[in-house]
Each structure stands twice: as C-alpha cells, then as structure tokens.
Backbone:
C-alpha cells in the first residue's frame, strides 16, 4: 500500500489506563498505525476520573484531543470527521448512543465500530441495556470490529445485524513489552481491576494456592478491590500499576495468572491483552479455560490451563525450569508473530481498504445516508 490513511478514533480513553483496558489496546494499535505512516486523531471525552489519572497526556504517535459534550464533538471536529478516510467509534464511550447518532449524521466516508468488550456488549443488548450502543445502530456501521473472534463474528452478523463483523483482537506493543531481566520476586502474580465475576476464580486460582503454599510468594496488582477481602500474608497488594510498570511486573514473576470475565468465557475467542503482554515479557501463563484459548496458545505447549486450585499448586510445585522456559519461549514467539500492534494495524488497514474499494459497501453507505436524510426531512415536515 502506498496511500496513508487519515483515521479518527472516538474511544473511551487513550490518556488514562486507570481502571480500564482500553487505553493500552488503543495505544498498541495506534502506535502500529503510526509506524506505517498513517495519521490518527483520537477524540476522548474529558471526564474527571480519567483527567486525574492521565499517564499518557501527550502521545507522540497520534494527535489526542478532548471534547466535553456531544455537541462540542460535532461542532469542533465535524470537518475532520467528514474528511477522514475512516471514523472508528469504540465501545463504552460516554453517551455512546448519542455520539454514534451525531457522527453518522456527518456522513463519514467509512463508519466503523470497535468493540473492545464484545461479550459484555452482547450480554447487555440481550438484557435490553443499550448504554453505549443500540441494536438499531449496529447495521449503520460499515464494519463491526470485534475484540472477540470465532463464532462470535457469525452471531454478530446473523443475530445482531452487523453488515460485516471482523475480528480485531487486542495486541501488545512489542517495543515496550519485553523481559527486563530483573530478579524473580513472586511465584505467581495477577494484574487486573477488581471485578465481582472474576473474584471467585481469583480466589480459586491464586488466593487458595497462596494458603496452600505459604512458603511461596504471590502478588495482585489492580484497583478497586474491597477492603473486606482477607488476603493471605504471602500475597502482596499493589493498588495501581501504570502500563510503563507492566514489563517489570511480569518479569519479576515465575508465572502469571490470567482470569477471564464470565461474559467473555461464555462467548469464547476473547483473549485479554494481559495474555499478550505477559507472553511478550517471557512470563509463562496459567489461565482459566475458555473456547478458543487453545487456538491462540496450545495447552501444555504455550500455556497452562487451570481448572482447580490443585492444578495451580501442581504447576507451581511440579514444573521444572527447562519446561517453564520452553513454554515461555513458545508463547512469546506466537505473540511476536501474530499479536503485536504492528500486526493488528496491518489487519485493520487491510480491512478498511477492502471496505473502501467494495462497490457493494459504497452502495450500502449511499442508501444509509439517503435513509438518514429522508428521516430528517420527515421530522422537519412533521415539526
């Protein structure tokens, strides 16, 4: 490809990784786009809970701008939205439904949705919860890029009306995630914000093993854990760990634990960015089980799958160092080949180019905008 794209992304947050996994996902993807010469404007709602926790206020790989309302978004950035080669709206954007309506009314060349929470989104829609996306809005998008792949893509098209559902897994920034060579401090660690549906698994796969193995060392990093949790004495707590501290954190663990949200287990094919980050740092992974995991990381070869406390105890006490290192090497090689920000950016750009060149897609967009114009005229007449 010779032509470089101008892309506008309207997402939850790029500036702050506090309490969300979106920021690191966007950072890796956009760095990959920038490395290939594409230009990205990221538009973020200016909200106090992220404004007070910004760990990347001035990125050097894209232009970051803030808006305070949907009206300001349209008025201040309408021109650039119209002229961009593609506009991508992310999941969990504040007032997402209104944002989608406002951006669609501007008739961008390509309008796409990037769902970094696909299983959660679909579960919400099934309950009638349309917090940031409505069922009626899904067919408006030229493409529905999904954090989840596999069977989920078929469901999006057949059951939810997506024109084109395309996998766009999260990814890791290969230049920033690598082993630091630091001395190992913990036998097993976990990085993640508190979530009620993940907590029972964390209890089973980390806290109970810590009780059973008092001579080993454990660590849990992440915010919002209730004070009522009774942490064992050999479990260290870190309240918040910004992304720049992740490589060091992973590098100081003998194994790291991956725990998956219930909606993502139910959907399958929904890898967390933590899997790719840990593997890139050469830290062997112990994970709960879900459909599609073995396609990304073959069990016993690139990952340990734990279904009980005893499974974790067996890995921590029974795996020799050579096998541990072989597993980490295999996992890292897979991630470096398939799951870096550069690889994901190439996948995204290829999809956008196909959409732009597809005569059927152009016809759909033309019809969509005609329908929108007709609806606006009817509203004006009735007024």
Residues:
């Amino acid at each position: 490809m010779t032509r470089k794209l101008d892309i506008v992304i309207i997402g939850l947050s790029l500036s702050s990784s506090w309490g969300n996994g979106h920021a690191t996902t966007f950072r890796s993807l956009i760095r990959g786009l920038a490395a290939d010469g594409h230009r990205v404007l990221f538009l973020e709602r200016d909200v106090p809970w992220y404004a007070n926790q910004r760990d990347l206020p001035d990125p050097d790989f894209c232009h970051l701008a803030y808006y305070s309302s949907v009206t300001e978004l349209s008025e201040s950035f309408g021109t650039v939205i119209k002229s961009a080669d593609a506009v991508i709206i992310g999941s969990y954007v504040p007032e997402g439904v209104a944002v989608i309506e406002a951006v669609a009314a501007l008739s961008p060349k390509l309008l796409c949705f990037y769902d970094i929470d696909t299983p959660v989104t679909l579960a919400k829609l099934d309950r009638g919860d349309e917090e940031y996306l409505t069922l009626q809005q899904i067919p408006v998008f030229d493409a529905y890029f999904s954090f989840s792949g596999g069977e989920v893509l078929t469901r999006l098209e057949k059951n939810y009306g997506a024109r084109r559902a395309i996998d766009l897994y999260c990814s890791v920034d290969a230049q920033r995630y690598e082993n630091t060579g630091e001395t190992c401090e913990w036998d097993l660690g976990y990085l993640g914000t508190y979530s009620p549906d993940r907590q029972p698994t964390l209890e089973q796969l980390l806290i109970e093993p810590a009780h059973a193995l008092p001579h080993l060392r454990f660590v849990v990093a992440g915010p919002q854990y209730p004070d009522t949790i009774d942490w064992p004495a050999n479990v260290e707590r870190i309240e918040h760990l910004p992304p720049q501290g992740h490589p060091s954190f992973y590098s100081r663990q003998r194994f790291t634990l991956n725990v998956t949200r219930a909606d993502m287990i139910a959907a399958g094919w929904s890898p967390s960015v933590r899997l790719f980050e840990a593997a890139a740092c050469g830290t062997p992974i112990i994970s709960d089980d879900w459909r599609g995991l073995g396609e990304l990381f073959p069990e016993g070869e690139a990952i340990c799958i734990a279904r009980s406390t005893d499974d974790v105890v067996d890995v921590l006490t029974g795996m020799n160092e050579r096998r541990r290192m072989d597993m980490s090497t295999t996992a890292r090689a897979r991630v470096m080949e398939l799951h870096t920000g550069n690889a994901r950016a190439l996948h995204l750009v290829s999809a956008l180019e196909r959409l732009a060149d597809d005569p059927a897609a152009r016809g759909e967009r033309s019809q969509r905008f005609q329908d929108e114009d007709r609806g606006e005229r009817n509203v004006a007449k009735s007024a």
